[in-house]
Amino acid sequence: MIKKLLSVLIPKDPELVRAEAYRKAIREEAKVGGRLFGPVPKGNRREFFCLDENTWVWHEEWTDGNGIRRVLTTRYDVRPHGLFKAQDGQPYQPITREEAAHLLHAMRQYNAEIDAELAPLMAASA
Amino acid sequence: MNNNKPTRGHERLRRPAEEDVIAINTRRPIRYNAEYYATGVIAATFPDIFDAPAYSPPRAEEAMAATAIAQTPDPAFEQAEAVAFAPQPEQPLAPVLDLNPALQRKLAEAATTDAYLPSDPEAAARVTAARDEIDAVHAAAQQPISATGVSYYDQKAA
User: Is B59 on the interface with A (CB under 8 A)?
Assistant: First the structure.
């Protein structure tokens, strides 16, 4: 309660505000990205987003047939010599042609969908 | 019955906060550069993907241009790559090596132009922007990327 009150009374550091806004932007992008691959089953969580200019992340959470919660995070690293992926501590491996094609589609759709979602918001800010 | 109750269609979109607009505008070039770089690398690795009808000639030309950029030797990248691909690195990755090469270059540029800050507003703005960008990426990478609480750096170090 006191913490909440103080947060209202004491202005936040502008840098912290900017950093939080940046993280929020990525979180929102991740939600849009998660919807690119079709409906997400109830109870599952899916995120797909661009972390930086060389990194894309896919995160999936689901409950398996034995009721155990599963989590899988895949990171795609774009390197000068190829596109590599790493999954949950496994070594890097180059992606296949089929996966590269899917990723390419996903990246383009990701940017298009995010721009479409943001267009009204940015128009309101103009 | 209140017939004046506004419907969704009549609701005005709330004006976003300034920091949100800045964040969105910061993210946009990063998103598109990421797509551009990946397109170039994919075009170099699997050129036949671009033979599909879905890709118009301009897209293919863009891809080839991006390939040239992506294949330009980059010592900073090579260094980071050497660490990332080491079979069993004896030392954990330092965060600075995780920083992508474009930002590393900006960091280096910021360091060298620092002396001109007082007299050169353009350089000062460039340095500030580069530092903000680097800070933002670091901040994002330190945050949990999902409900698991694992951050990008945690994964890199794992």
Answer: no
CB-closest option in A80, A104, A108 to B77: A80
A89 touches chain B (CB under 8 A): yes
| DSSP letter for each residue of A19-66 | HHHHHHHHHHHHHHHHTTTSPPPTT-EEEEEEEETTEEEEEEEEE-TT
CB contact under 8 A, B31 and A114: yes
The pLDDT profile of chain B, 158 residues, written as one tens digit per residue, is 444 444 444 445 567 888 888 889 889 988 988 888 888 888 888 877 776 555 444 454 555 555 555 545 445 545 544 444 444 334 333 333 344 555 555 555 554 444 334 455 665 666 566 656 656 665 665 565 554 555 555 555 55
Q: What's the rounded Cα separation, in Å, for the pair B45 and A81?
A: 8
β-sheet with A45-52: strand ranges across:
A45-52, A55-63, A69-79, A82-87, A93-94
- Stated pTM of the model: 0.59
Give chain B as a 3 state SS string. CCCCCCCHHHCCCCCCCHHHHHHHHHHHHHHHHHHHHHHHHHHHHCHHHHHCCCCCHHHHHHHHHHHHHHCCCCHHHHHHHHHHCCCCCCCCCCHHHHCCHHHHHHHHHHHHHHHHCCCCHHHHHHHHHHHHHHHHHHHHHHCECCCCCCEHHHHHHC
Put simply, whether A70 touches B (Cβ < 8 Å) is no
